[in-house]
Design brief:
The chain is α+β, with helices and mostly antiparallel strands and 370 residues long. It contains twelve helices and eleven strands. The longest helix is centred in the C-terminal third of the chain and has 24 residues, at 321-344.
Length: 370
Amino acid sequence: MNGPLSAANVAETAVFRPSLVERLKTRSARLMRWEFWPAWAFYPPVVAYIVLRCLRSPYGTPFTAANPGILASGVVGETKHEALAPLQQNAPQYVAEFLLLRRSNPLAERMHALRAFVSHVGGYPVVCKPDIGQRGRGVAVIRNEAQAESYLADAAEDVVLQRYIGGAEFGVFVYRDPKTSRVELLSIVRKCFPQVIGDGQRTLAELIRDDARARLIAPSLWQRFAKTLHEIPEAGRTIVLVEIGAHSRGSLFLDGNDLQTEALRAAMSAVLDAVPGYHFGRIDLRCPDEDSLRAGQGLQVMEMNGVTAESAHIYNPGNSLIDGWRTMIKQWRLAIEIGEANAAKGAAVTSVMALFRLWRADQLRGKQWL
């Protein structure tokens, strides 16, 4: 039996508070794995490369022209609905259907639109996410109307309401070669969702502590399941700990580059052809299974991310720090080359000051979704 814990089998109702020793153990384990390092610790060599390469460019910040159809090419501040709208219009078979709910509209009006959408897609669950967001910020799987109303009432900005897609999740990084215009696959990542299985004896907190992967993301799980960590799941029950395919939210990212095929490349080329001005970025999608991905069939795009998306296979456990840096430098080299080619054709380039303003606005926006 899968799903969240119920009120049954509760050993204690108090909020769980990990001990200092437990917190220190978790922190030390994360420090030993560079995939959990904060951006300021991982990115300095990559940023150094970007700065040096841009100093040699006549366009200043050429990477901001890599995706002319997206604000600042998706560095920061772009909207999800604007990236997905052309795909929904031109190739709807490839997209998880969505609807934009404007914060400026009254809650009752947004709820009316939500009910109609839920009915149209066949019921709950659905997904709600901020129209402007990154790293899984504010994304939630909504399972009933009460959750939906609470989410929309709290949302400070526009929200994208999207059909929930089951199956396997992947991130496919694509780019349009600036010399040949051919769409190529740069990276594929398998997104896996940590889970634990009850044994009828250990509490949820103990199951998390004893699981090799779950204990590495324990801080977020302690917060997410604070009121149920004392519960003892019955034997055989599967508890899915993470539902959102974001590394920062606890998903396990595995190298999926062995899944590259010509059929998949052709399908992703069709996706890019349907979205004018999109040349470079990671496309997050779901499909029934790995065989379907290889065949380029049943693909349902959930998000089209821009320049600052990552070739996320680098977070495969066991990958070296040097390989991570090498991959990201290659990615940014491509972004700059594609941006320069687009800028030479007249695509707009966003200035450093404009980027800073977008970044600052996003920092303030992020606090509203904590």
